[in-house]
Structure formats: structure tokens, C-alpha cells
Amino acid sequence: MRAFAFCSLFVLAIPAMADEKSDAEFKALTGKWEIVKSELGGMDITDHLKAMKFEIMAGGKYVAELGKEKDEGSFTLNLAKKPKEMDIKATGGPGKDKLIRAIYKLDGDDMVICYELGGDGERPTK
Questions:
Q1: Assessment of whether the complete model's pTM goes beyond 0.85
Q2: How does pLDDT run across 58-76, given as a tens digit for each residue?
Q3: 3-state secondary structure 40-104
Q4: Considering only CA atoms, which of 51, 47, 93, 56 is closest in space to residue 74?
Q5: 3-state SS, residue 26
Q6: What are phi and psi of 117, to 5 degrees?
Q7: What are 69-98's pLDDT values in tens digits?
Q8: Residue 99, strand partner residues
């Protein structure tokens, strides 16, 4: 498990490089993740989420299961932003049809995702 010609050629090369970076990032995110730390409203809720099964699949799809609750959906990435951005769209579960604007950091086998749950939908900045 892993631990949660000048102008015309230049224009054509940028999307190709961006796609390659994006593909590599999606590949690095793909797999089963273990929750090692979780906070909500400044309170540690790690013990509550320790049993969560969280998997990111190819193509920006995810599934999270905790007991009988199942959340699934998809996400997109914006690697050009600092910090990197993730837009999460649930297609099932308690967050169905909601857009969650997040920031994230991937460092080897460690990933940190920050988002505001139940707020005004603004993306965190740090």
C-alpha cells in the first residue's frame, strides 16, 4: 500500500509535454491508498477513517468505501498551478453531483489532499 519551427512547433510541443506530465501524474496517483492522517475542522479524525478503502484507478476515477458507505467519481488535475489543483466530482455516495475544489501534493508514496467540506466550495490556498 502507498501512504492517502519556432512558433508553430513550440505551440504544438507544449500540449504534448503537458499531456506527458499529466499522464505521469495520473500514473503516480493510481493505486490503493491508506489513510494515515485526517483532519476535519482542525480535529483529528484519523481513527474514524482508518478502515477506509481508497483507490484511484486509471483515467482519473476513484472509489472510497467506509463500512456500507461508498463514494465514487472522477477528478481532473491542474499541474500548472502552485499548489497543484484537483477538481473532484462524485458520481455516487453522499457527495453525489458535488464539485470539490482541492489542492494536493504528491511526494513519492505520500499524498496530501486539502479541501473544504460542506463550505462555499472555494479552493484552499495552502
A1: no
A2: 889 999 999 999 999 999 9
A3: ECCEECHHHHCCCEEEEECCCEEEEEECCEEEEEEEEEECCCCCEEEEEEEEECCCCCCEEEEEE
A4: 56
A5: helix
A6: -100, 120
A7: 999 999 999 999 999 999 999 898 888 888
A8: 89
